[in-house]
Each structure stands twice: as C-alpha cells, then as structure tokens.
Amino acid sequence: MKCPFCSSDNTRVIDSRPADDNSSIRRRRMCDSCGKRFTTYEKVETIPLIIIKKDNNREQYDRSKIEAGILRACHKRPVSVDQITKMVDEVEAEIFSREAKEIPSDDIGSIVMDKIKDVDAVAYVRFASVYREFKDVNTFMNELKKMLDSDHK
Description:
single chain, alpha+beta, 46% helix
C-alpha cells in the first residue's frame, strides 16, 4: 500500500478491525519512510451485477436507486432511517445471494415490496403503485384488497 503523504511503498499495518458495517476491514497503517499514519478499508469485491430493465435495457446495479425508491415510499411515514437501511441491506443480500450476473428489475421490485410490506402498509401501497404501474383506481383497489385479505389470514 502506498503512503498517501510521501508515496513510499514502505507501509505496514499497525491495527486491524471490522468496520462499522461488518462487511469490510478497517486497517490503520504507518509509513516506515515518513512515519505518518493513515486508514484504509478492505472490502470483498463483488461480481458486477447487471439489472435488466423493463424495456430490456441493461445497466449496472446501483444500491442508491433501491434506497431512493424506499425513501420515496416511506416519505412522511413513521419509518426510521435504520429500518430503511436494514431493508436495503436485506434486499441487497438477497439479490447477491442468487449469484446471478443479471437480474430483472421486476425481481428486485418484488423483493423490495416484500420487505416494505412488513414495515409499513402505506409505504407498501405507495411503492406498489409505482412498481406495478397502476393504470386506474380498480387495479389500485385490487392491490389494497389483496393486502387486506392477507392481513386477515
């Protein structure tokens, strides 16, 4: 590892511990040449995941898009940032556990809907209305009825 201060290749690890998210390692390093200390993070490299959009275009997976969709659905709802982060983490874990190189956006939407349903009913209906592209009030009402029926079982 090169020192960010003097560009020397003579650095060594003086402390190693899991980072806050437990998915990476935080390392404190010291440069043998200039004596300065710096921090590096080591993370497992994941397979680049490609998302197949509804129009069959393909784009690289972007966690922030899932987060933004969930945030929009939960806007002005009693859902904490920690709950949203947990949902995004769970969705991401489920997507990557499939070990597929490509995944349809519909599959991601279904996973997100399952996670939101357990957290907030209003956020679920909001997300479903965009994800399922409700064309009229009847399709919206049908989704509500499905949700209410599943709650009574």
